[in-house]
Specification:
By secondary structure, the protein is mostly beta strands. Helix content is 6%, strand content 41%. It has three helices and 28 strands. It binds 2-acetamido-2-deoxy-beta-D-glucopyranose.
Length: 403
């Protein structure tokens, strides 16, 4: 990284700057010919024509693909141009709050005190190669400039001051300054997506977010179920809405599954979002805790051996078993029996017992050693082992001929 190439003396300066100055964001907006840019950058997602498959990416000639705003970092001294920027009709600077709205077509300029600082921007913008985004580091502050803005630029913009020791710099996450910027698009209430639908896993008790990001904080947004068609109640506790993050289902249950979409309205406009296909996954709270037991710890050569691996866990949670056993190397095939049953004599109906039994017929010397069972569910895997000895008949009534 080019950050590393700065000489040592400069870093001391840098460090001072970071320590002395608190970081804040200024915003300056430069009115340009917004109307003209709107016309130039206006684009529509022709959702109705999109096919629900991978080919939907070619819906527009230049799809405005957006992912989550969790972002690749843009280095303020990186490959982007470091020419001084020209700010036309420089406006007044002001401290920004949590959110700001910038009319589409206008230029967004964010300043963040500190040297160096790093920025993160909505990931869609990182892929934008039209040169609309510029990041410059000045002596005392970093400047992010975005020209010809569109509704698709809506999202979180973050400035991280850097803490440097010698040539080692890291972001100071706790001092990050974030601002959510809306670019209210007169034609598009939702931030465009090239996907016709999105598949989202609903995991038991894990909050699930349907982003349906709007371009304007003034848009009224509701949540709808496709079949049977109905508006979904948003009570603020089971399901809540935030104009920056979308709808959150706080503790998913099986009945939340299905096809959902958002509807935004503002003025005379009413738009539907991408569809969200919610698939419910019974998600375990923890990795399984298997218990292993061999039918005997010393098995007589020629007799049969059973090694049992048992997991007691939540009902409806699938457990996968795999085995490692000594005879494997000698080409012994694994014979296993698996079953799932209610916990025997169990008090809780919420629990089930999953079992895998490894069967070794007519034990030979190669079967002596360590038997390992690995039990896995969606939360993780755990292995347990036991050792088995192969012995001669303990007290043979008719001693076998040896040799
Ligand atoms: C911004 O839009 C204007 C007018 O359409 C165009 O001339 C200019 O090249 C654009 N700038 C960038 C960096 O895309």
């Amino acid at each position: 990284m080019s950050l590393m190439k700065v000489s040592g003396s400069k870093w001391r300066l840098v460090l001072t700057a970071v320590l002395v100055c608190s970081v804040f964001l200024d915003v300056a907006r430069c009115q340009k010919d917004a109307q003209k840019h709107r016309a130039a950058t206006g684009r529509k997602i022709t959702q109705g024509k999109a096919k629900p498959d991978k080919e939907s990416r070619s819906v527009t000639s230049k799809p405005r693909t957006r992912a989550t705003p969790a972002a690749r970092q843009l280095n303020s001294r990186g490959s982007r141009s470091v020419r001084p920027i020209k700010v036309l009709n420089r406006g007044k600077f002001k401290k920004v709050g949590e959110t700001i709205s910038v009319p589409t077509g206008e230029t967004l300029e964010l300043r963040c005190r500190g040297n160096p600082v790093q920025w993160s921007v909505p990931s869609y913008l990182q892929e934008d190669d039209e040169g609309r985004l510029r990041i410059v580091q000045n002596e005392r502050y970093g400047v992010l400039t975005l020209v010809n803005s569109t509704g698709a630029d809506t999202g979180e913009y973050t400035c991280y001051p850097m803490y440097c020791e010698d040539t080692d710099c890291r972001k100071e996450y706790d001092k990050a300054v974030k601002v959510f910027v809306f670019f209210p698009d007169p034609q598009e209430l939702f931030v465009p997506s090239s996907d016709y639908y999105k598949v989202i896993q609903l995991r038991t008790n894990w909050p699930t977010v349907l982003p349906c990001q709007v371009t304007s904080p003034e848009a009224k947004v509701s949540l709808h179920r496709e079949f049977p068609p109905a508006e979904v109640a948003v009570d603020g506790s089971e399901i809540s809405f935030n104009v920056r993050t979308g709808f959150t289902i706080h503790r998913p249950r099986p009945y939340h599954a299905g096809a959902l979409y958002c509807v935004a309205s503002r003025g005379g406009l009413r738009h539907s979002s991408t569809k969200y296909m919610l698939i419910y996954v019974h998600y375990p709270t923890a990795a399984p805790s298997p218990v292993i037991q061999a039918s005997v710890s010393s098995v007589v050569r020629g007799e049969n051996l059973r090694v049992t691996c048992t997991v007691v866990g939540e009902q409806g949670v699938a457990v996968d078993f795999t085995w490692d056993y000594p005879g494997e190397q000698s080409g012994r095939p694994p014979y296993t029996q698996e079953n799932v049953s209610p916990v025997p004599g169990g008090t809780s109906q919420q629990q089930q017992q999953s079992q895998s039994v490894l069967l070794v017929d007519e034990v030979r010397d190669v079967d002596q050693g360590t038997y390992t069972c690995t039990a896995q569910n969606l939360q993780g895997a755990k292995s347990v082992s036991t050792t088995v000895k192969v012995v001669n008949k303990a007290k043979p009534k008719k001693p076998e001929p040896r040799g």
